[in-house]
Amino acid sequence: MAVADGKVVPMTLKAAKKIIVTDGECASALACVRSLGMSGYDVCLVSHAERPAAAASRFVRKFVRVASPWNEARDYRGQLAEISRGFGADFILPVSDASVFALSEPEYADSFGSRLLLPSKDLLGLGMSKIRTYRRALESSVPVAAGDVVTPDDNDALSAPLAYPLIVRTDNHACKDGRFHKGQTWIVHSAEEFKCVRREQQSLGQRMLVQRYVAGHGRGCFLLVWEGKVVCWHTHQRLAEIPWQGGVSARRQIGFDHDLLQSSVQLLGGLRISGILMVEFRQTEIVSATTGGAQLLLVEVNARPWGSMALAVNANVPFIVRWLDLLNGSPADLNPWEGKEGFGSAARKKVCTTVYPGEFQHLLSVFRSAKRSELKASDALGYLSRSLSCVFSKVTAFDYFRSDDPRPACRMLKRAVSQTLHRLTKLFCERACSGIFRLFCRLRGQPVKFKKNAVKTNQFRVLVICHGNRCRSPFFEALLKQKLRGLPVEVISRGLEVSDTNVPPRFHDVFRSHGVEPNLHASLQVTQHDVRNSDVIVVMEGMHAFAILRRFGLRAFARCTLLQVQKTIFTEVSDPFLRGPAAAAVVFEQLSALASGFSDQIVSLFSRPCASQAPQKTDP
Q1: pLDDT tens-digit readout, 453-462
Q2: CA 567 from chain center: how many Å?
């Protein structure tokens, strides 16, 4: 590779090398493909997704679909080794955390027939573990939010008191079944919420990094380091995030902040590392006592191609290509195109964004907050104005669209339209089914009635249905059993799509607060036998009744009912599975109230005589 007038000059075809880029479904993979392709590399793209946008790039020589590194690491490694030998690859660039983890195990290093672009051992450790990064920050005196590391063996109390809200993070980790799980993040607002999250992670054997949550926006320093020496770098500032209060980057601007660079170098000081990395900071609204400006707090380190790699590519900062040059023996000098402070005025003003899903989801979060009165309407319009002005600005580049490579953007547009139509269709069907089933329940009236076999056997059977039989239906089943104790009533719960058998540990305290022991439950899939032998089928949502109709027929559908709030009002109960403990507690409180009304209806059936048990008339 050569550099002239601040621009990357492609290699000749004779000098071209072959490289495999993994995880084509990631936005950073497309940026890597473009950077390598413009520098003369022959690129083979692999992905577990069927038609990723990056595969449409004109710089992709070959695309192969493979197993998922997240769920099938062994198959993924075998397929990648076969592709590498067939393509004659010189290098393999893993993009996602799962790929980096799957390919970093030493026993598989020689099976690919090509060199792996992996971070050095120390850098890999920081990239895979937020806890290790936090401890490294404490050792190197890099500013970081006050926190504590909680292990599964610790008691419920933190070693140092922290004010709520707290942010809780777990590390990337591999499970016993071979799956790779990315670390999770929660924001908890009370001791009860923290206790629930901690119990769930304790049951999984996971350590947690608990820190004081500080409002602000994201800043990042991006580096190529070779044997401990910074070879290439730039910073960025997030101009828009998802959600707007702070989160994933939707729009960002390039910069050359030497304070960020100094903090990053301080974090890495003493480590002889090599590879690319992003050091993420949080610029808070708190004024630093030493500098007098906004305080910068370390968040984490990513030792792989980062999500905003397109910003570097559009500003002609070839991190990956420069890394390959170093591997091929080039001197580890600082970028010759850097000049005094950066890459020229045009590059230093470069803004990069993704219209979909970035700007779209950013504005969606803004208007949701405005709807809940968390944000003024005038401020929401301000966010909309900045998004529109950015999209049409001359200095703005796009993650997916490039005038010299437009096909990935066209594929993303097609996917966006398809996904939007699918979601709207699904939403319409769900609303229509819910409305139709509520009307059906209202016209039918009283949902709890005796069947003939129930009268003969003096046994009434209730089947409670939800999606996974882990939250709503087992909770409702246990409450009914408590309230109907002593009556000849059998209550069971089942799921339409059972994937796990246990109640989520974060809901255990909520269950126990209502007198329900969660550890006694094991989820089961609904069967024809369950439906046939039930007198009434309680569904949590209207869609569940139509799922029963498709699987088990009209007779089963006729016995389905929603829970009754008032004489002519039937209601659905939303799924708490993806909610936090506090929001889920509201759902369980609603179920508890509905269980009282439903059990009263059943008790009333046994308190009045049945028609078949009336005294027989005799002839005079």
Answers
A1: 454 456 789 9
A2: 41
